[in-house]
Automatic annotation (TrEMBL):
<dbReference type="GO" id="GO:0000287">
    <property type="term" value="F:magnesium ion binding"/>
</dbReference>
<dbReference type="Pfam" id="PF05822">
    <property type="entry name" value="UMPH-1"/>
</dbReference>
<dbReference type="InterPro" id="IPR023214">
    <property type="entry name" value="HAD_sf"/>
</dbReference>
<dbReference type="GO" id="GO:0000166">
    <property type="term" value="F:nucleotide binding"/>
</dbReference>
<dbReference type="InterPro" id="IPR036412">
    <property type="entry name" value="HAD-like_sf"/>
</dbReference>
<dbReference type="GO" id="GO:0009117">
    <property type="term" value="P:nucleotide metabolic process"/>
</dbReference>
<keyword id="KW-0460">Magnesium</keyword>
<dbReference type="GO" id="GO:0008253">
    <property type="term" value="F:5'-nucleotidase activity"/>
</dbReference>
<comment type="similarity">
    <text>Belongs to the pyrimidine 5'-nucleotidase family.</text>
</comment>
<keyword id="KW-0546">Nucleotide metabolism</keyword>
<keyword id="KW-0378">Hydrolase</keyword>
<dbReference type="InterPro" id="IPR006434">
    <property type="entry name" value="Pyrimidine_nucleotidase_eu"/>
</dbReference>
<keyword id="KW-0547">Nucleotide-binding</keyword>
<protein>
    <recommendedName>
        <fullName>5'-nucleotidase</fullName>
        <ecNumber>3.1.3.5</ecNumber>
    </recommendedName>
</protein>
<dbReference type="GO" id="GO:0005737">
    <property type="term" value="C:cytoplasm"/>
</dbReference>
<keyword id="KW-0479">Metal-binding</keyword>
Length: 118
């Protein structure tokens, strides 16, 4: 996540004066950036022997979040949070190309919970 920097003032923090670098956003939120942020030793401690990632995203840019993680398997679940049929139709092909499964509308996480039980 991004960390806010506050201007230092006597008696406490002042107004926001910036953010820590590098800024994380949907287009650089990936395994390589996370590894850089936490460091190689912490990364190994976090991942252990894991070789699979369950990636959940609600935008096309999120589909690349596991890039650079070095995992053997990445299962990508996309949430297309649209309710209007014409908006779904306009975006569904790109979501299907980017994600292994696409969940439409504002529904529960039951499908995802089921995957974690396998």
């Amino acid at each position: 996540s991004n960390w806010v920097r506050f201007e230092e003032r006597p008696g406490g923090d002042g107004p926001i004066c910036g953010f820590t670098e590098p800024l994380l956003h949907m287009y650089n939120k990936n395994g390589a950036t996370i590894k850089e942020r936490v460091g190689a030793d912490e990364w190994r401690a976090l991942c252990g022997e894991r070789s699979t990632v369950l990636l959940l995203g609600d935008s096309l840019g999120d589909a690349t979040m596991a890039d650079g993680m070095g995992m053997a398997r990445v299962h990508k679940i996309g949430f297309l949070n649209e309710t209007a049929a014409e908006r779904i139709a306009a975006r569904i092909a790109k979501y299907r190309a980017a994600f292994d499964a696409v969940i439409l509308g504002d529904i529960s996480f039951e499908f995802v919970r089921g995957l974690t039980r396998l």
